[in-house]
Here is the input.
Amino acid sequence: MVKIEDVARAAGVSVATVSRVLNETGRVLPDTEARVREAVARLSYEPNLSARNLRKNESRIILILAPNFSNPYYSNVLAGICDVSRNLGYSTLIYNTYDSDALDESLVESLFQKNRADGMITLACNRDDRWLESYASRYPLVQCSEYVEGAQIPHISVDNRAAARDTVSHLVSLGHRRIGIVTSANRYLSSADRLRGYRDALEEAGIDPDDSLVAYASADYSFASGKQAARTLLEAADPPSAVFCVSDILALGVIAAAGKLGLQVPWDLSVAGFDDVDYTTMFHPYLTTVAVPCYELGRGSMLMLYDHIQQKPGAQSEVYLPHKIVLRESAAQKTDRTRSNTD
Amino acid sequence: MVKIEDVARAAGVSVATVSRVLNETGRVLPDTEARVREAVARLSYEPNLSARNLRKNESRIILILAPNFSNPYYSNVLAGICDVSRNLGYSTLIYNTYDSDALDESLVESLFQKNRADGMITLACNRDDRWLESYASRYPLVQCSEYVEGAQIPHISVDNRAAARDTVSHLVSLGHRRIGIVTSANRYLSSADRLRGYRDALEEAGIDPDDSLVAYASADYSFASGKQAARTLLEAADPPSAVFCVSDILALGVIAAAGKLGLQVPWDLSVAGFDDVDYTTMFHPYLTTVAVPCYELGRGSMLMLYDHIQQKPGAQSEVYLPHKIVLRESAAQKTDRTRSNTD
Here is the structure.
């Protein structure tokens, strides 16, 4: 097998110079570079493979595809990824995908090539982005939080369905039976799974599902859209006494909308969120929510990616971190004062 | 002068193939690539220059150096940068610098080279990072929000000193004379300028400065450190009746600390923030603050960078966007109930 030393000898340059040309990591005079390229071609040296191996040692760049920076969920995940990658000696470059619909194979491929990344982590995708599977078969890729349903792509997340079920079951245990949900009109697996978990809990409690209690906020979980979705639930003839939201920011929107209607949380309405972002305890009522270990998800995704880059035998490909329901002030026992009296 | 067509003819390939080799933007067979490199060398075609020019058209990557993703200030700025860059056909890659102290010339240089970025935007730096000046003389660089004091580096920001002065003058106009400040223990120009503006306003009002009214929170403006800084002010023998904070998150910490001490904002204590991030109006009391046009700063920095990349004559290098004091609930007229009775 032809070695890099053979190329260096044939081109009359040092091994370091060959490496610089193949990895494009330093300035090489044009005619020196041409000599190296020619030697590579003449000797049938496997330049792609070697360039790739050397490159792996040299680039040490991880590309992160992240949507919607204004969501504190993602900032916490990013912090976890960046802390681990820094310790492992990697630079992280974050590309704003705006929303999951902006993801497509040519974008991912071109970002990857342009930045010669050693691997990639996606923080959001639609649950049916099956094209990511062919990509993942060629490059180290880990999906964090959101992943493609049923695909063979390494991912780390929480069990969204179980967490939603547990939260809604908690609302049931507080005496609520008319329970609404504010979910998101996106195609994320988490939104679908949280809705499934909500339905699981109702079924377990023997409560008939009622589509009029399912409200959809915007795809990006905005505060304003949470308020709007809440109004459709709360102004209905037969409003819920408790609302489960698929994100904290939506829950804050629901609390604000309730306030506008003269309803006090939790006395008139119980509200539960999802994520446990920082500001859920900056103001009263402190939010009852699902604590998602965002930072740990970020850390775990980078560690998992590292194992895949290193082709470590037995590298994990499917991890679910434990969630925790955090009981605070926004959800309380249903009493006579609670608005809904229909059940 | 040798043209790319000459190289293509000499190498027996298409112009597109030469371009692919020079820009490394696509797969080219090793021997084809070697032929192109050889032709480039033989004809003394200026590969660096052309590669650079073509690369400028091809790389279209802007590198953004951003600290602390969990601060919503930066997420809004990032959104503005990304929206404009997307419209201009650029990809933005964001590198997490953690804090401004992590910035150094070799990091910036290596990120720039590795990613072949067309330009760079920094969102934070220390006010004395003069080494950035030599960097800016070689590469398109724009500083957004924070910039190096007195340096010749294109920047866009707000007039932090004037904004702080206006805010504190507003507190004076409400009858407060014992006014504290919670600032940050970082080396950002904004922190220094906001402290200067606070002192300007006191001086204008004929109020003697009192160092015991200046409290320092952590360098990263955390909620917890805002609470802690507030306690030193509020538990003092002669506490302030109003506190100006150099960021909203610190102001939220002050409000929380006041609540723990049984003080109601604004009845017992007036609080003003800085930035006007989203969650200042998610809970009561709505925060009186300085509206910084974060998104517009992001937009403006990318437009400015674009002009510098294009070497547009008359490209702007110093822009200050207008700020606005937003009067809400957290700052009110000093009354007898207000805690401080010492003036």
